[in-house]
Amino acid sequence: MEHRVKRGKSFAVIAVLLMSVSLFAIVSVSDTGDADSSFIVQDGTGRSFAYSGPANRIVSGGAGATMTIADAGAIDKIVAVDKYSLYSYNNYPQLETLTTNSLGSFYGTTNHDYIRTTLVGMVDSGDLSLDDTIILTSYSSNETLRTILESEGFTKVLVWVSIDSYQGIVDFVRTVSLIATGGTPASVADMDAKIAHVQDYISSYSERPKAMYVAYYSGSLMIGNKGIMPSMLEMVGADIIGKDPDKGKNYGDTNTIVTLLENNRDTVLFVQNSYFTGHTLDEFYTEVFGGDRSVLVVPMGLHWNNWNPESADGLTEIAVNLYDRPSAPAGNDDGNKYVAYASAALVILVAAMIVWGIYCLVQIRRTGNSSIGIRNFAKMSAVLAAVSIILFLFILLDLSWAGNRTLGIIDTWNALMGHGTWGNDIIVNKQNLPRVAFGIFVGAGLAVTGAVMQAVFRNPLATPYILGLSSGASLGSAIAISIFTASVAIFQPILAFAFCLLTMVIVYAISHTRGNSVRTETLVLAGVAVSSLISALVSLLTYIAPSDRMGSIVFWTMGNLGNVVSSGWTDFLIAVPFIVAGIILMFTQCRNLNALMLGDAHAMDLGVDVRKVRLFLLVISTLVVAACVAFVGTIGFIGLVIPHIMRLILGPDNRIIIPTSAVAGAAFIIMCDYLAHLTAPIYGVLPIGVVTALIGAPFFIYLLVKKRREVGW
Fold it and tell me: H/E/C letters for each residue in 172-233?
């Protein structure tokens, strides 16, 4: 009995010891767990940050970071975000409950003072501490912003400037989720699982499918040669057409795309989703292939290459479209239609020159074949012949542009006549021809408008650009882009015309003096002042516009004939009738223009109703400028340079100046468009407004210096 009692006591002691050890182990594990809750993370620049636990409050300076935090279930920790995190087009359900401070745009450095002041104010109010986390993504200027914030005492400012691989997205999501929650959410495991699933899925295929990434940047389509998407294509085993490691950046244009696809028609094109915020798939086929639909095009999902967990779904979709690709829509051949349009444009141009030649012969006969009439006609004929040859030469050169190469003259002509290869036909007839044909009439319209305004105001410096008409039309276009997203094609030309007319009314009213006269110096100064004000308004609209529309507004301020390509011939058929009608109506006023150049008093002595004629010409000029600028943006100095050169060669007679300026303006703008494309391999295609300004601005300075030394016309 005693032995049993001793044994029982022994068991009790052992049990107590075991319980003590277990309790100690539990406490130790608990203590270890608290210790293990600390962690160290690295941001995209390689800097390390130590955390004792998950962040209490987070400032998210990027939509990808905001979506990742929301997906991890920590959206309530976000106390401030950049403006792009709040845009409705993100279409991310987890962000619907996000109500927090917006710090505006993190792009560039202009908003840094506001961001710093706001965050410091939040610290003072207790809504943020200096040890809370600030995540900055996407922009190189965020390195500067981090320096500014650290100078204010913030200790955890993490920066990711760029991510160039899909694995980089996974690491970013893992790091940001760890900061927000202290652990790894299921979404990260899901991303890893989808990678494994995709790799297992494609392992059964022996042939590598061909793919091309088409990027959309600043209103232009180009070969996507950098970023996350090429990495995702490589991850699914694609043979990437157009990838060039030596370039290290996106490059080329729509012609480059077609050229690369000439012998790779089975390539699947993945087009950046931002293009489709303002365009449709049909518009893409029109802009790139002129309506031919024999190549399969896949619009990328909204978040395929974004820095958030949904990119895993994009990886799966890419694999499905490459390996289980649907058939491409049946192609169509509109070659004959485009040849007809080209022929019509050339016929109109040649017919106008013939009609003018007949008119000049009649005028010479009326003057009794005087030596002055014959000499003027001979000089005009020589100038028209020379300018026409230059125009024809640059038309062929501009039509031959093929992105990373130039077609031969014979290949260009064969394609123009409908006998070219698939790629050459698309490049010449469906991409280049609408741009070149529209450019001919835009150049003619702007040059004639400049000649008319210089005669109306008796000032060689008076042009649509100098007087602010082009800027006014651009403001109307910018408002249409900002407000009427769905129906911008309808409201853009309407508002462009309205604001162009309003600008002319304002400039004319400012420069108008007593006695119904207009001082030319006041006119130019008023035009410069109003143009500066309008430029400021356009800049304001650009700054506050959503990112998907910002590039379109910037485009209008620089001018680009390539914009008409996306509509096929629609813009051409809308604008050209107004331009041609305006040129004809202005030409009918040649005699009145000659009278106005003598001064209002002399013009009235000759029976000219100065008020009505001037108002009529201003309205017609405004109509022509609006029709040009509404579709291609601001293109300056054509109306300044061309009429002045024609007057230096042919004299002041507007019966000669207007038709020769029309042909010379067409030749000048096509030449500038060709020069703009020459820089494409290095800088991309320059906006044509940049080229015309580089040529026209020095000429404008020359005129100012010359006018200072001269008196009168």
Answer: HHHHHHHHHHCCCCHHHHHHHHHHHHHHHHHCCCCCCCEEEEEEEECCEEEECCCCHHHHHH
